[in-house]
Amino acid sequence: MSKSPSTSPSRSPHDVTSTTNILAMPNSHTSHTNNNAPGKPSQNGSAGRNAPSNPDVEALFLVRFDSRVGYTIAWQRTRTPATDLDGVEYKALPSGLHAVQNDLVYFTHTGPKGEEYVGLSAFAQSEAGAEERGARFVSVGVLVRREGVLGRAWVLAGRLEGVARELAGGMEEREGAVLERVWGEVQGGEDMQEEREEEELPEHHPARSVLRYVDVCGPLVFRLQQAALLRKRVLFVGGPPVRGVCEFVYTLTVLSSISPRDTSSFLPGTDTLLRIPSLFSIGVHDIPLLETPRAKHGGHTGADDLPPEGWIACTTDEIIATKKHLFDIIVDFDAKGRWPSIRTSEGDAVRASQRDLARWKMLRRELARHERPQLYTDAEPADEDADGDAAPLLPAPTQDEKQNPEHAIDDTTVEPITWSHLAYLGFMWWASAGEKDAFTTAERDMDRELVACIPPPSPSPSPNTSKALETHLIGYFHRMTSGFVRTLAQLIQEDEGSEGEGDEGDGEVLIDRDDVQRLGLDVWSQADRAFVGEFAEMYCGRGVRVVGGEVRCCGVGVPVF
């Protein structure tokens, strides 16, 4: 995964974005009370300068796989007797982990009284005798109170990995003492973060995955952004290692968050939609939970026909991918090809628009200027890493694909140019004597302004001069969302201002191609036109329809779409 350094001395090392505090916000769809142990400082919200580095750990546990009895919790400690670990053994060891040597797994867990936890487990395996069928599997994990997206569970990742490797080596007689020592450390507030430069983003922080997320998903990142903004149920499917896909769940959750500053035009009740819930790793044991109806809030008035609450999750269980009623969008990272396959639950392919493709190429060229050689290499990974939690989700792009990403693009990834679009381009080329039309130029300039917010690379990069590329990339997506929301609000306000005195202000808002361009969308894409309509209905309670038109010259009319 990406390990680019982060800068900005004025920030807390746990607040990875300077453009917004969204990474440190508590989940907007739920509330929490302070359940700290007596005498332990509160850690709600972002970590303060004097706050302990560790999260509030509610439980520490050891899970083993026994060939005779299956998954078992071999050891556990909880802060209170009421903390229930039922089912944690299955979440800590997703199916397929036997294929890798080590891994990190993020998951969620709900207590009997609705308490929400984030779990993090470190998996390791080693050789064993015939009585254990030649392999020993262990997973050491924690539960922390859910605050923000992850409850800062990632702080303990390095320590858990070390303990898992130690216990997988076969030391049952000492495992109790080892785990008791770790339990004392996490309860005593001992700093368990790895040492690093002041401005360097911690090694295990999931925000480091944002660069790889953009690289792996290609131009489809913008369609995933739209699905998450509509609070769809998005399911990532792929084999182990699980760590990378779990971090992608975190990344999409953060990128698709909406700032409270941009909600002035939203209807009451939509505050629960500002951040999509993240479930992280799920398995067959979670199917009953996924089937439990949970209505999505928003600008709807009828409660009976509300769509289910959205979420983002990942799984290694192929059986979940066959149950189409459980998800809205499925992303297959095991698909053949350069990019993942994205489909709706009905089986329809989800493809990027032509504007998405141009925008992604522009962004990718800018990011390439910042890349270090070790982040993207064509060399085969070393054996010890090839099957660990740092193994790539997809094959590394070839040098030709990096320099010419369009070589990896086909009609399975990007919507083809429509006949009307081709006719329009040809007509404008002829009418302007070969010059680019003003509409396309304005579109590119708008996309270029977004990329321009990423500072140029330092001529001599170092941990002290790095500009926190991950932070700026997160800010890129936040600015894109903010621009869309604010422009849509302006269009709705303009429509309300033009309505007559007797109008209720809840009629259909008509927008044209220039409005679609200002929204940052592709006027030629039916999917983009549907997106703006669904978003406006869900958040603002207004119907929006894009009206077409035509360009006429010398008596010849060319439809816009």
List the helices and strands and how they pair.
Elements: E1 57-66, E2 70-78, H1 88-92, E3 102-110, E4 116-127, E5 135-145, H2 157-168, H3 172-188, H4 210-217, H5 221-229, E6 233-237, H6 243-255, E7 278-282, H7 287-291, E8 311-315, H8 318-322, E9 329-332, E10 341-344, H9 354-368, H10 383-386, H11 399-403, H12 419-431, H13 438-452, H14 469-498, E11 509-511, H15 513-518, H16 526-540, E12 544-546, E13 550-553, E14 556-559
Parallel strand pairs: 6-8, 6-9, 7-8, 11-12
Antiparallel strand pairs: 1-2, 1-5, 3-4, 4-5, 9-10, 13-14
Structural account:
- There is one protein chain.
- This protein is of the alpha/beta class and 561 residues long.
- Among the domains are: 135 residues, 2-Layer Sandwich (Beta-Lactamase); 152 residues, Rossmann fold, CATH 3.40.50.
- Helices cover 32% and strands 16% of the residues.
- Strand 1 and strand 2 form a beta hairpin.
- Helix 9 packs parallel to helix 13.
- It is elongated.
- This is DUF4484 domain-containing protein.
How would you describe this structure in keywords?
disordered N terminus; five-stranded antiparallel beta sheet; Beta-Lactamase; alpha/beta; 14 strands; five-stranded mixed beta sheet; single chain; 16 helices; Rossmann fold; 561 residues
What is the helix/strand order? EEHEEEHHHHEHEHEHEEHHHHHHEHHEEE
Mean pLDDT: 77
Q: Low-confidence spans: pLDDT under 50, at least 5 residues? A: 1-52, 299-305, 373-396
> What distance lies between the first and last C-alpha atoms, to the nearest angstrom?
41 Å
- What is the rounded Rg? 25 Å
Which shape, going by the Cα principal axes?
elongated
In spatial order, strands of the major sheet run: 2-1-5-4-3
